[in-house]
Structures are given as C-alpha cells and as structure tokens.
Amino acid sequence: MKPPQQQSKRGETFEEFSYKQLPVIEISPDRMIARVKFPPMPLCVDIFNLLAEAGVCSGIDTMTVRELNQMLTNGERLEETYIVARGREPSDGMEGELILRSTRPQDVILSSDELVSVDYRIYKQKQLALAEMEQPIAMIINPTEGRDGVDVTGKSVPAKPGQDVKLDLGRNVYISGKKVISRIDGLVEYGRVNGIIYLDVSQVYIVKEDVDFTTGNIDFPGSVIVNGSIKAGFQVRARNEVIATTIRGRVIAGGGVTARQGIIGGQEAADIYSEGSVYAKFVHKAKIITNEGVYVKKSIMASEIYAEKEVIVDGAPGSIIGGKIFSVKEISAKVYGSESYVKTEVAIFTSVKDVVDMKKLVAQRFETSKMLNKLENYLGNNKEILMRQGESKRAMIDKLLRKREQMRKEIASLDSMIKELQGKLVMNSTGRIEVQRHAYPEVKFMIGGRFVLTTEKTKRGTYYFDKKTEEVEFR
Asked: Nearest 5°: phi and psi at 449?
C-alpha cells in the first residue's frame, strides 16, 4: 500500500483539474465584436482553436490572443473578458453636395446643416458671386457608393450608398449636366428644409433691416428693397428699383427710387441718381437727379433737384422751401418759400441734363482758372529773366510754361462749351410753374433764361414764358 501522503496529493491534483473550465467565446449580437470570457479556473487551451470552433475568422487580434495563450500556459491571473476580434464597420457613401460658385479659389459647400437663408453679409464674407445670365451658379457633386464592412464571422456588412442632393429649383434656374445655370442676372436665393435645398435667382434683394456697417454698401443687378433705412455714408446701387423706408445715404438706380418716409440729408446731402421717377413723403437737404419726375407728398426743403419731367408737391403743406429746383415740364407746389424769406429758386429749362453739365463745366473752369492764376503768379511775365536761370531750373520752367499754355487752351475750350450750353438753356420753353396757394418774397421763378424775383407775397397762379414779350409772365 502506498503512503497516505502520496494518495492525498494525487487526490488533490485530480480534484483541482476537475474544477477547471474552458474559456468561452462570446459574439456580440451584431457580430462585430468577439470576446473571450475566462472562468475563475480556466483550462489551458489554444484560444485560436476556440475562435475557429466559434466561427470567428475575421478581424482577429492575433497579438492579444498570443499573449492570452502565454498567460494561460504560465498560470497567470486573467481578467474576466478580453476583446479578441473586431469586424470592419461599413463605410457609408458620402451624400451628394451642392457647391455654390464663389469669387475666391475655394468654392463654398452650401448643402450642410448650417444652410438656412440668404444674407448679403454671407455673400461678402464668403465672396459668393452674384448670378449672371446663362452662367453656372452651382455644381452638383454625385454621392459615393461607400465600402462594405465585414463582421467577425467573415460575413459582409453592406454599406449605405450616399443619396443624391435633393433640389427644389425655382423658375429662374435650370440644370445642365451637373451645373445649375441661372436664366437671369440677380441674387442667388437658397435654403434647406427637411433635407431639400431650395435654389433660385431673384431680381429682387430684400434687406431686412438697415443698410449700415452690418451690410456694407450694396451693388445688386436687380431691385433692392430695404425694410429699414439707408444710413448716411452708405450706398445702394441697383440695376432696377430701390425702395427704402428712409434714405440718408447715396442711391444709384437704373429704375425708380421710393422712400416710404423721407429722403433726409445731414452734414452731407442725401444723394439720389435715378433713371426712373423718385417718390417720397418729404425731402430735406437732398440732391436728386432723375431722368423722369419727382413726386413728394409733404415738402421739399433746402434741396437741389434736377428732373427731366416734372416736380410735384401735392400734399400738406405742399411746400418748396429753400434750395434749387430744376425741371423741364412742370413744377407744382402749394407754397413756395417761407415767412422768413428763405431764398428759393425754381426753374424750367429745356434740359436739366444741360444744367447739370453746365454746373460741372463751371466748377471745372473755376478750379482750372485758380490753378492757372497760381502758375501765372509764380512764373511772372518776363520770360528773358526766367531763361537766365541755371540749366536744371530752366528745364523745370520750360515744363511749367508748357503746362500754362495747356491750361489756357483748356479754359478756352471750357468757355466755348459753357457758351454753347448757355445758348440751349435760354431757349424758349413751354414748361410752367404752378403756385397753388401763394409764394413768399425771395423766391426766384425762372423759365427759359428769364426770371421773376418775388418781393411780396403772391397769390395763386401760373408762371410761364411769353414768346411775345420774351419774359416770364404770371397769371
């Protein structure tokens, strides 16, 4: 019989072996992760074999499995679970995109979630180009198919292909190939609602608030509607109409100009250049040049107006006070001047464009004459004394003498053009000036180069040019 001690030792070894268990391979429900789970007393086995028996054949972390096998062999302490295999996730396709044309080298992708609404500041910040007729405004980028994945059992996991960009095109744009083309000149309008991008081109640009430092100056190939004011120091240029609540700055319009309230100047006059008619409730300290008419509801004060048609002030009080009003067809107001005898000038000419040109020529002649006088005073009249100077100074004097001669010729040319315009401006005119109530003293009524200056308060009547007397008459 063997010693009891040996029997006891063999019994303990068998008992220990009988309690050991195999590690278990667990696969996640989506089959993208495989873990090995160790019992408290794991049997020493090859985990590679366990993975193969469980059907795991892809994405195996061979380094981790080898380390675990070594730890099992050495009887080292193990954690309960280890990730031993990972599948490759599918790479879904990229969604289709819409890229808006810009004036800088990098185009701007505008189909992201931040795409909300048009803002003129965005155009300036991102340097987006305004639309031009029959030119592309955007490029459509195709979606991609994506790359399929594979789970730990080797089965393919299909990727989701990207979707085409969803577009809702307005009537002023169309698709040609992968380009979106504009039918007109204008402002690109865009927005995104429920994943659908709206895209169109508008000939009307709406400024929700004021034209000021937040928007900067605006230059638009269509019409501009400003829900607020055009602030002093800022400019709106439009190919068509400009409409604003109040205009304090500068407007250059290919169509008409409307100020729902008024056109108001400050330290500098509000400046309006319009191919169409100008409408306002009142005008104060403004300069207006239009190829059509000016129509004001309340009053015109301290302003300079040039209208190729008529100037009408027909509301209450319906007054023209101070400034200079020039028209071709008619000037009509209820009251001219004021009780304080403010100097006021209203005039009818055959062309207010000629009046504007005359003012420019006179101003140019004045500046040229002033420079010539300075040059004359410097050079004097004794050419012999001038030419006795040193060689370097004689070269400068020669240059100044040539400049003087050039300026003399320029003044002669300006005098000729001014004389020609004066001849046009004093031509007989069929226009009239209507006084619907009265005119105060110090109002000058001018027609065809002739004028009447009121010295007392006048009553209702009409000023016109009498061809027989060749004078301005009142009746």
From this structure: 85, -5
Start-to-end CA distance of the chain, whole Å, equals 158
CA distances for 53 relative to 20, 25, 48, 114, angstroms = 20, 9, 9, 51
Measuring CA to CA, how many Å separate 250 from each of 92, 214, 222, 269?
54, 17, 17, 9
22: how many CB neighbours lie within 10 A of its CB?
Answer: 11
Q: List pLDDT tens digits, range 341-374.
A: 999 999 998 777 777 787 888 888 888 888 888 8
Q: Name the residue among 348, 349, 319, 299 with its Cα closest to residue 440.
A: 319
**What is the C-alpha to C-alpha distance for residues 220 and 342, in angstroms, rounded to an integer?**
40
304: pLDDT strictly greater than 90? yes
Token pair, residue 41, equals 């007393």
Omega prior to 317 cis, within 30 of 0? yes
Q: What is the pLDDT of residues 369-409, one digit of tens each?
A: 888 888 888 776 655 555 555 566 677 777 777 888 888 88
Per-residue model confidence (pLDDT) at position 16: 52
Which DSSP category does 88 fall into? Answer: B
